[in-house]
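Handoff note, outgoing to incoming analyst
You'll be picking up this chain. Sequence as last confirmed:
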Amino acid sequence: MESTSEHKINDERFEKGWNKIKEIDGGILQQFYRDLLDISPDFARQLVQFPFGDVYSRPALDNQKRELAIVSAIAALGHAQPQLRLHLHAAIKVGCTREELNEVLMMTAVYSGFPAALNAFATFGSVLAEALPCAGHA
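Most recent structure output, in case you need it:
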């Protein structure tokens, strides 16, 4: 059982993580968290506390650099399109350009192979259509 001090620390980690999510997210991750709460409240809380409260909140990278790194890592997996979609939206929200994201995804072909890159570009195309519906992917 958690002690009072452990509970306070976990609440602080959650609050820090939730604030980071609100900073980078356009609502997709917040909805994902709410949906996950119905399935596994403990895992949902850990999802906010560890990556967002502990790792994403570290000061060495700004949000743009961090999202570019995350997009690169997820794209390299080749099979995590829902997570890639979420982070492509976040990258656009924090100011990453289409050109920067294109370059990051091109590197996927070099280091993870063309199938992973093709999956990433397919996801990127759908994100661009969602994020820039009137721009015709300009």
